[in-house]
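ok trying this again, last paste got cut off
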Amino acid sequence: MSPHVPQSPAPARPAHQDRLAIGELAARSGLAASCLRYYEEIGLIRSERTAGGQRRYPRSTLRRVAFIRAAQRVGLSLEEARTALDRLPEDRAPNATEWNTVARTWTSRIDEQIAELERLKRRLTSCIGCGCLSLRKCGLYNAGDTAASGGAGARYLLGDEPAAPTARRP
């Protein structure tokens, strides 16, 4: 039996190794350095400066950048991403309660987007159904589309006559 030899704790990593240069953060996150500088400018991420003025980002910034990208993927604006980030810890992964608070906000936002897309889909269907075949008369751009009022289908192709244009007064 071997005697128990106490293990010495792992040496602490120097603080500079816990920081990423902007090039490292760009490579790891898949974003251009200019994008990261913009995110920093608008307060989504933070860096510290070295004595030489170089940016150094905490490793937790990778998580924040991933979060911002996920927010954008579901259609949130950068301002909405900032609001969500303000609810989460900056230096660690969120716990389940913290994440659920943000996720509920995203769920309602996604539901709003789905409803808007459904409305757009209905409008496109009715536009195609009217058969006006003209962007100038399209129901999406001209809600008073006269061809659509004649019923479904390509009204002009089915024999309906377009209304005579009204003369404009000088």
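PB: full thing came through this time. Helices lie at 22-29, 33-41, 60-73, 78-86, 96-130.
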